[in-house]
Write a structure and sequence with these properties.
Blueprint (H helix, E strand, L loop, with lengths): L2 H14 L11 H13 L15 E8 L8 E8 L20 E8 L8 H14 L4 E9 L3 E10 L2 E11 L10
Parallel strand pairs: 3-4
Antiparallel strand pairs: 1-2, 2-3, 4-5, 5-6
């Protein structure tokens, strides 16, 4: 397992063990922000593949793989090789590639996110096109008594489950679940 895989798995494990989530009902952007600020950024250190907070960006552009209409697209979390990187060259073309990409999908009870297969197809295409880029698909399935967090990794056309965790939930009286 690579150092970046270890960092992502460790960060997600800490998220799954975070007591704040037992009665929390955030949507996808909330999960992305909470994870990034509370669990991913603190992993930055001189011995980590991510050394500086400024390597981690939320909702920034990356180049599109061949076969897509637009030249670039925004991704949930992008980890760059060096602080302050972007995908754009001096002439404004999206030609710089990140160290890693993390795409999130959150499925709330009775509301499955329909974009999962599209996002996974995009990650397969991107990581096949750029075999040195690490791609991750994180899915959170929120249930009444527990949420399940699963992360799949994509590297050079290979896809595998990196980790899966259960997050205990305290049913909410406001939602008639207690």
């Amino acid at each position: 397992m690579s150092a970046i895989d270890n960092l992502i798995e460790r960060s997600l494990k800490e998220l799954a063990q975070d007591g704040h989530l037992t009665s929390w009902y955030g949507k996808e952007r909330d999960w992305v922000n909470y994870f990034t600020h509370r669990h991913l950024m603190p992993q930055c250190s001189s011995s980590s593949p991510v050394k500086d907070w400024a390597q981690i960006c939320i909702e920034v552009s990356v180049p599109q793989p061949p076969g897509y209409n637009k030249p670039s697209v925004c991704r949930d979390i992008v980890i760059w090789h060096t602080p302050g990187d972007t995908c754009f060259t001096p002439d404004g073309r999206p030609n710089q590639h990140p160290l890693a990409l993390i795409e999130w999908k959150v499925h709330r009870q009775g509301r499955r996110n329909p974009d999962v297969s599209h996002e996974r197809q995009w990650l397969r295409a991107y990581c096949g096109w750029q075999p040195a880029v690490f791609g991750y698909a994180v899915e959170v399935e929120i249930g009444v008594r527990a949420a399940t967090l699963t992360c799949c990794s994509f590297l050079a056309g290979n896809e595998r489950v990196l980790c899966a965790f259960e997050i205990p939930r305290v049913p909410s009286a406001e939602m008639g679940l207690a």
